[in-house]
Amino acid sequence: MNNAVAGFSKFSKEEKINWIAYQYFTNPAEAIATLKQYWNDDVKLQQLHDDFIENTITNFYLPMGITPNFQINGRYYAVPMVIEESSVVAAAAKSAKYWSTRGGFKAVILNTEKIGQVHFISKASSKKLQTFFDKIKENLIYSTDSITQNMQKRGGGITTLELRDKTSKLENYFQLHVTFETKDSMGANFINSCLEQLAKSLKEEALNYADFNQEEKDITVVMSILSNYVPNCLVRAEVSCLVSELAEKKIEDPKEFAEKFVQAVRIAQIEPYRAVTHNKGIMNGVDAVVLATGNDFRAVEAGVHAYAARNGNYSSLSFAKIENDVFTFWMEIPLALGTVGGLTSLHPLVKMALEILGKPTAQELMQIVAVAGLAQNFAALRSLITTGIQEGHMKMHINNILNQYQTTAEERKMIKNHFENNTISHAAVVTFIEEIRK
Question: Active-site residue 85, yes or no?
Fold first, then answer.
């Protein structure tokens, strides 16, 4: 079978679906029916979703859940989360409720700086190029005025512009390193437009610079692009209480629990194999809220994990300590988020999610997202050092197994009763299903 195709992007939606169905499925009619089953009956709404990306054939659904009782800086939030993994929403909700009776979560914005770079090659010496840059810097910034004027009215725009010499790493390689404030927008398109204008102006200024020889006038711009590494766009989230106040049903000895918790975090700080899974748990909470609010979770993931390795070793994003009988658990993470522009004004469920959150500013959303990550991390660590991670996870996961085997209501009741006092595993559930069906 030849699966190559020419002009696929020009096919109609029906033609795309038919091509996929007849090329890749033994039962094309069933494949077509499955794809169309997920179309929205509202034609306008479906067209909106079709236009989000290219070559759309259907919608891919993920569940959207709500985690209530998040008390952040004295205010209660119900936090929307979009994720496919069992137990994440339940764990976050449990943490939210737990800390709501212990002072709640505290969050603070440390900085909101975003970064973009113009990467270019110049045959001029570092000293000569720096002199050139110092003379044209104001002209470069001025050249972006038509792009930045609306952002400036909102208190944003270009905050710094500097020349960086990278010739020790790569021959003739320099950067224009630019920092931005983008207020409530994530600002990717704004930043990239500014960078492309700066690159254009840089080349023009070089051509007209009398102190450059002909070779030095010919600056080669390699690329102009924002960075998803935003180590100075930081938010801190924290919880704390007296060690004695940690007590609950599964924490009979709060002192032992606190000490074990601190050790678990320290292990993640020095052991990369543990740190990756530890931070993945944080990102379960972070990504779920980022997705629900129409932000770019891939950019967030890349930036956060780079931050976790900023000191040369991949390490825990969170920290814990006990001082003067007070338990404190916190983290600082970089989050470049927006509440205006992009999907935030297009996707109906994104608009609803932001409405549920009280129409937050970008900084407020940073705080909410960070808290969701910290709550998720607390829930995972609490399970790990008490009952083990599988007890709660498998109780949630069992529904997926029951759906997979298309169990009846009567079978579900029997299965759930059986596993109230028996260890849950995928194999054990499947074996029990087979037994009751004999």
Answer: yes
